[in-house]
Amino acid sequence: MAITSLFRRTLLGTCITKSLKTPLTRQWRHNYTGPQSIHEILQRPIKDAENRVAVLSTGWVRAIRKHKNHVFLHVSDGSSSEHLQVVSGSDLFEKSQASYGCSLAVEGVLTKSPTEKQTFEVEATSLRVLGHCDPVQYPFKVRKKHRLDYVREHLHLRPRTNYFGALLRMRNAASMAVHEYFQSNGYCFVHTPILTSSDCEGAGEVFHAVAPDENVNKKVKAEESSSKLFFNNGAFLTVSGQLHLETISGAFRKSYCFGPTFRAEKSTGKLHLSEFYMIEAELSFTDRGIEDLIDAIRGLVTSVTGQLYAKHGDDVEFFEKQMPADYREAIRKLATAGSYQAISYTEAVNLLLKNNINFDSPISWGGDLRKEHEKFLVRHFDNSPVFVYDFPRELKPFYARENEDGWTVAAVDLLVPGVGEVVGGSVREERYPILRQRLEELRMDHQYEWYLDLRKFGSVPHAGFGLGFERYLQCLLGIETIKDAIPFPRFYGSCKI
Ligand code: 4AD
Ligand code: MG
After folding, report:
1. Of 182, 240, 369, 481, which is best to mutate to test ligand 1, by the most ligand atoms within 8 angstroms of its C-beta?
2. How many angstroms is it from 342 CA to the middle of ligand 2?
3. Lowest pLDDT segment from 15-24, 129-138, 475-484
4. Among 73, 263, 292, 309, which lies 20 to 30 A Cα-Cα from 213?
5. Which CATH number is associated with domain 3-131?
6. In CATH, what is the architecture of 160-484?
7. β-strand 195-196 against 236-237: which pairing, if any?
């Protein structure tokens, strides 16, 4: 079939409508040879270029370079970190009315590129604009590097930028690497709920779920109104899947969840979102306590990071180019198990006191480690990832297992360059009387009878952790603010589109 007619059949709406009138046969579908993704084209064998095979592709114009008789177009479709270089005669280009940002169908022949920048290019025989883009109105301008905060104001168009293309592919690859790690290490993936009746962290940073009813317009407290009528109890958006995952860990040796998490912190800071993704895991029968937990956290982070470096080097490189050299060195350590350090909270406080730095928040035993303290500790260990463990009981939630000293609990945070805390976890208090006493002290026992049941019926030593997905990406890719590590950032004062 001639290339042009094939192209028309597959791309022109009218022809598609016509073909849909006749039943789609199995054979028709198998014979489909429509436009190829740019990734597919760039993967073709070199002999295709030597034989000047015909190709069809579609994408968006990301750059235009005009020469006297011809024009170079960079076409991208998200499938690859590379663009497809299209060379068009000036006449063909002018006639097509293609412009920066438009969507385009390209027909042409695959050839070897004369420069080393790319292997292939396509000599266009036909250019057809599918959707025009008015360069005057379009907020992104050709050959201009826009600031990330400017780009963020156009959330709906942001995926079209090179930066965001790379970020979205990294999020995709990292998500898959997370699943791959857990699946190949015997964990069961569990869908924990988004609507929940418990505030796992006990910090009161929960969004209340409200269902429409006659109370909505009245000035009543959210928790006393509609969700109570709807569910018979107050309901929130989850702050962590941990407690639900612990019900699973009463029956499954290893389980994990990976989903959206909500925190109503009034923060617009560089490290906080109101909606973020958390990867959480629970491990039962942890006979080595915190050591098992540290091994599991390190196993996940080294494996995911190693996979990203090994398989998605192009996109990693895109971010690395924008980092200072020492930061690039530092984050590479995330992939090497041997570079992880571990220090108890008490040792960490002593270290901070001994170094006598003028911190904005002075540190003393019992006080929370602030961002500046966390960053100091990472720097102190030559920018290595650092586990801090055995925190004072009062600093951690009720579920953390009490240590023998009676003052500390077997909780651990992982601190990394750039962001500080990226993981929080603990050995869980599996001893019924101690957990009941703790919940009574906090006057929380009435809400958590079901959680106490897990300790009443076949309790086992178990531990778990939560890794903030965006903070991990922020650290790995050297992203200044967490708002640029997620497609649709939600934070105090902003929930756009
Ligand atoms: O330390 P956190 O609060 O731990 C928990 O929620 C535990 N229940 C997890 C568990 O043991 N299953 O949160 C875990 C991680 C933090 O270390 C941080 O990386 C991330 O979640 N995180 C946030 N990320 C972005 N924006 C926020 N507001 C975040 N709050 C926590
Ligand atoms: Mg924490």
Report:
1. 240
2. 17
3. 15-24
4. 263
5. 2.40.50.140
6. 2-Layer Sandwich (3.30)
7. antiparallel
